[in-house]
Amino acid sequence: MAENVIPHFQNDPGVDSIRIGAKEFMCVGAKPPFDHPHVFLDMGDEGEIVCPYCSTHYVFDAELDPHDASPAECEFKEAAA
Fold it and tell me: For the whole model, what pTM was predicted?
């Protein structure tokens, strides 16, 4: 399956903050079926943003690839159907 054009991230581990390599992305909350509405977030000129649904704090890290997260288990990869 092709990788998402817009990076998707989730917070199954329940960490307070996730470092990501993208400023525009989708937060899904947790992996389905426990996800919240998939919300598009844009940091703009800022270096951080909080998801209005799950309160996950995302911090931009220019050292990471746009689809990478730290911790890595917060990268959302859809399973092939």
Answer: 0.90
